[in-house]
Amino acid sequence: MSGFKIIGVALKLLPKAVQLNVVVKLVSRPMRIPSAGSELSRLAESRNYGANGNKVAWYIGTGPLIVCVHGWGGAGAEDMGKLAIALSKLGFTIAVLDLSGHGASPGKSIGFGVFIRDICEFSESLDKPIYAVVGFSAGGLSLMAARYLGKVYAKKYICIASPCKPYPPLKEAVKSLDLSEELTAKYQEYLASEFGVPWDDITKRCFASCDDQQLCLIYDNTDTFVKPADADEIASIWKRALVVKTNGNKHRLMPVADEVIQAVAEFIVGNR
User: Fold this and answer.
1) Among candidates 100, 245, 229, which has minimal Cα distance to 167?
2) Average pLDDT in the 122-128 region?
3) Is the pLDDT of residue 1 over 80?
4) 199-210 confidence digits (pLDDT tens)
5) Could you give the CA distance from residue 20 to residue 18 in angstroms, rounded to a whole number?
6) CA dihedral (4, 19, 139, 218) positive or negative
7) Residue 56 above 80 pLDDT?
8) In whole angstroms, what is the distance from residue 103 CA to residue 93 CA?
9) Which of 42, 144, 209, 255 has the fewest CB atoms nearer than 10 Å to its CB?
10) Inter-residue contact 125 to 99 (CB < 8 Å)
11) Band (147; pLDDT cuts 50, 70, 90)
């Protein structure tokens, strides 16, 4: 029996009143993954941001500002390094965030609520407008939530393999910890609370279209972590969204895939 399965068995023996807190703590632990070797930290300038000024964003290039946000539990800003360097060569300033518990930013807990808070704090600290934002996986959904809250405004939004709802941690918790139906429902309700809306309203709130904004959705047909059909669900809400589907790119490697980087660049430069 795996370690998580053993924890799942032990979880069922705990009082129901504390089970949800245990699940949240387990799922929210930072999982710092070593960088694949991006040149971002060598080429970019680090700047602090956040309410306590202890989180780090990496800046590279000159020109209109593009903000890039990584996914949950990876190597942080380094995961977006290849993309950021490529975009900087097109005449843009790229700010790549290390969110709490990732990369150079401290933090003992991660999650959608933390992602959204950090993105809002970064946006509020800026002294120049944002031209475009690029978010990968959980970072994309969190960016769109910050937009819905009125804390982020850009002309162009790009989501790379971003879930239409925060279901990946729920799916992983159910699978790894063998959650009961009751505890699954409670954890789903908790995840929705991080967005401040009911679960069924998350997609339509985060991806409500706006006439002066553009959205590009880049997903892979073979992705087993985030459903490629999420792009179609989002596009049914944001009717003018550009949907790009690739084939054969593993979820975590989407931001470094050449065809993904090309699609992002073409969308950002188009009608500039």
Assistant:
1) 229
2) 95
3) no
4) 999 999 999 999
5) 6
6) positive
7) yes
8) 20
9) 42
10) no
11) very high
C-beta atoms surrounding 208 within 10 Å: 12
- Which residue, chain included where needed, has tokens 């931001």? 255
Kindly report each contact of residues 222-226 with a partner whose C-beta sits within 8 Å and lies 24 or more positions away, as own/partner: 222/247, 222/248, 222/249, 223/161, 223/249, 223/250, 223/251, 223/254, 224/251, 225/137, 225/161, 225/168, 225/251, 226/137, 226/161, 226/162, 226/163, 226/168, 226/251
The one-letter amino acid at 86: A
- Type of residue found at 125: S
Task: Collect all residues with Cβ–Cβ distance below 8 Å to 139 and sequence separation of at least 6.
Answer: 69, 70, 71, 72, 99, 115, 162
pLDDT tens per residue across span 167-210: 999 999 999 888 999 999 999 999 999 999 999 999 999 999 99
